[in-house]
Amino acid sequence: MMGREHEPTVDPSITADSLNRHYASVSTDACYEQPPLKHTALERPSLTHYVTDYKASKMLDTLRPTETGFDKLAWFFRLAAPVFCGPVADLINTSLLTSTVPS
Length: 103
What we know:
By secondary structure, this protein is mainly α. The protein contains 5 helices and no strands.
């Protein structure tokens, strides 16, 4: 078969964390200023429930078993939707309100 001779090799010692540490160490900028929030985040600061607990529960409850990114745990998220819906809604709302991904 063509193309098999030059398959890329993967170094198992290179992880996402090691790459992050490397780029953080070489990408320093003494003059860095955090960018301002997007104007859309400041338009309606009093509105904190873009996604309700009910909407988050429906999102979790309708996950398909073949959903990617959950390492085949979609069944667990569907089962625990009533418990997880509040924190998931809060996480989504915080992200939308601040235009950031909360730590």
